[in-house]
Amino acid sequence: MKSDIQIARETPLQNIQTIGAQLGLGEDTLIPYGRYMAKVPLEALRPQAAQKAHLILVTAITPTKAGIGKTTTSVGLGLGLARLGKKAIVALREPSLGPCFGMKGGAAGGGYAQVLPMENINLHFTGDFHAITAANNMIAALLDNYQYQHRGTPEQLKQVLWKRVLDVNDRSLRNIVTGLGGGAHGIPTETGFDITPASEIMAILCLATDLDDLKARISRILLGYRADNTPVFVGDLGFAGAVTVLLKDALQPNLVQTTENTPAIVHGGPFANIAHGCNSVLATKMALSYADYVVTEAGFGADLGAEKFFNIKCRTAGIAPKATVIVVTSQALKLHGGVPEADIKQPHPEGLQRGLANLDKHIQNMKAFGQSVVVAFNQYHFDTEAEMQMVQQHVARQGVRFARNNSFTHGGAGAEALAQAVVDTIAQQSADPIRFSYADSDDIATKINKVATQVYGARSVSFAPKAQQMLKRISQLGLDHLPVCIAKTQYSFSADAAALGVATDFELPVASLVINSGAGFIVAVCGDIMRMPGLPKNPQALHIDIVDGEVEGLS
């Protein structure tokens, strides 16, 4: 089969105005970024229409290191719905340059189920990530200048919390010292970098409802503390407006198209293992304004992305999916069934059978949120009929619909069965109102404990001394009402990446807590999770090149 980039290049693209016209968006509404991409202004939102559309969440079982094909399935489902005559839009996150040049090589779907233009979406796109990076680092620069100008006075912060970010994987920047070279060059400070998708600015952009809300959230960002322990926020230092200016265009969702020239909205890109893992509220609401069915995804497995989608995004935005699709692959099932990673592409019915426990746990969790579930088997050429039948029969015994997804090789035609299963599920057993994992009135420790025990299956939660101190500070600041965003490994229900299958009888260790008062949640950092990833031994950057004017190596 042809590579993703070959398929992307050979797909005839329609002018973005033509794509917008499918939705009823006129040329005078869209803000084109070249021929095939456009920003959609916030004035185009139609709240009343959005309330009538069907939102579908795509999540997955615990993934392998190669992923599970969630974005491909999301795009394929959107294409399948269109083939059934439904007006459908897929609403996705933007790819980060870190994974593109690190391990993945791209994140715009795959095969004949992609969002296009693939090279642009993977590389710079409309500049949203750069705007977020610039806004984040402008705060850092203005704060450093404030410290320099107020050094030795009571106004100087004794503790600075804000870090810089870059959209790269660079372990060398995790812990650094700035301000070296003498008094004229700043104040020496131990600090570090996070990756841009972990920036609070990214979360703020993805949860903001308009420019005023964006500015208000930026104003609420906690920067640090003065000597008397009074907190200092961006609003206290007077530059929230300047930061908002840098983000005014990035706040607008991006309109692109799929491999079958249907509309797609791609906007925002927080990771789910270190952030909240969902595309922007505005992108989702924009899609709901112009479609009957909207397909969106949440990062990594359902224990991370879907949990945060419900407990953070849905709670904040007042939206709820009508059904949730859980993506499975035979490889992931076998890995969680104890089959060595090198052998998961080979037939192994016993290992696959054991791995179904991981799927069962995710189904149980989604039902606990009140969701009607469809299981999508993302099919590969090496999958055997016997093993696929085994999964289908197992799922049927739980009263859950099952469908094979072949959109990677056959586009929308390969996802018609999945689309029909989703349509039937929504029509016959639409989801209940969301049952959140915790109440707003619960304190932060209780919220973390409820997610850990109810969603992950943990026995208990332990808080390191640093985390215990932060719990007290959060309470003193009156922030216990905020939801929690747990940062942990994506490869296990626990904080131990090696605990495959369904981890049981474990303690979730919370190393530290980060106050994201602007975004409106508290980040609980568990285990040794890093907010700035490193590069693998053989990064994808070694295979990316430009040859005769064409980009090679993206996948």
Please provide a written account of the structure.
The chain is an alpha/beta fold. It has 3 domains: 303 residues, Rossmann fold, CATH 3.40.50; 120 residues, 2-Layer Sandwich (Domain 2, N(10)-formyltetrahydrofolate synthetase), CATH 3.30.1510; 83 residues, Roll (Formyltetrahydrofolate synthetase, domain 3). The protein is built from 20 helices and 25 strands. Helix 4 crosses helix 18, helix 7 packs antiparallel against helix 11 and helix 15 runs parallel beside helix 16. The longest helix has 22 residues.
Characteristic key phrases:
555 residues, 3 domains, single chain, twelve-stranded mixed sheet, Rossmann fold, 19% strand, 25 strands, Domain 2, N(10)-formyltetrahydrofolate synthetase, alpha/beta, four-stranded mixed sheet, Formyltetrahydrofolate synthetase, domain 3
